[in-house]
Specification:
single chain, about 250 residues, alpha+beta, 4-stranded antiparallel sheet
């Protein structure tokens, strides 16, 4: 049986996401020594002491000709807080990723919920595979905010009622919606992150168009900001070569 809740938390609402880089071992020089071992052997480790700017062309060549494995010898771990429906999309990315998410079985979930902000386009136009989203009217925005917030409050009250009655957390959580915020650690390398960004962000330099849901794109944009500072030459080559993972 679940512990009886000790407080009566009130729902809060967010329209943003949180992405923090909590640790990393990632630099452009990681790409260079991994690539040059094929011709230099153990001497490739000398690349760690050199300015990677001197080898900008090699990084671009590896990206252009899709020699991908040198981009795997690095690691980035992000803390991400976002709606559950974002994580369900996120975890379709399995190769080169590791995840650990907070558990509704082992802790009482906090009442933090996603409500689209005013800049979130609400209306879908066109047919599947060739559609676009456009801004909603003020009436649609007001309706969306009111209905989602009311639904969240009702769901969380039901969750609290079940916990107070001694129902196990893993059972009580079934009434909660996918707009609830969850948190996780996600670890990847540059190659797996590039594949993610190619699918989950829209960008004018992309060779292949992508149509991600805006909320996961928000996460991707923030991850890319961190990565671009860690590996600026690799990031530049990614953009130069159409944002296609090698």
């Amino acid at each position: 049986m679940s512990d009886t809740p000790t407080s009566d938390p009130k729902p809060s609402f967010r329209s943003d996401v949180t992405v923090e880089l909590v640790k990393h071992s990632a630099s452009d020089s990681d790409v260079l020594w991994a690539a040059r071992v094929s011709t230099a052997g153990e001497q490739s480790l000398e690349e760690l002491q050199k300015d990677p700017e001197r080898s900008r062309g090699l990084i671009n060549y590896l990206m252009r000709d899709r020699h991908g494995s040198p981009f795997e010898h690095n690691s980035m771990t992000f803390f991400i807080s976002a709606p559950i429906f974002v994580f369900r999309e996120f975890m379709r990315h399995r190769v080169g990723w590791s995840y650990n998410e907070e558990s509704g079985r082992y802790r009482e979930l906090e009442p933090v919920f996603y409500v689209p902000g005013e800049d979130r386009k609400l209306v879908q136009q066109g047919r599947p595979g060739k559609y676009e989203f456009v801004a909603g009217t003020p009436a649609q925005q007001a309706l969306t905010a009111r209905v989602t917030e009311d639904s969240y409050r009702q769901a969380y009250e039901a969750y609290q009622e079940m916990l107070a009655a001694g129902v196990a957390r893993e059972v009580a959580r079934t009434v909660l919606p996918v707009g609830l915020f969850s948190s996780m650690y996600a670890t990847c390398n540059a190659r797996s992150l590039m594949h993610f960004l190619g699918l989950r962000t829209q960008h004018e330099l992309a060779k292949t168009p992508s149509f991600p849901q805006r909320e996961i794109e928000m996460v991707g944009e923030r991850m890319e900001e961190h990565w671009s500072k860690l590996m600026p030459l690799t990031h530049a080559a990614f953009n130069t070569n159409g944002r296609v993972a090698p």
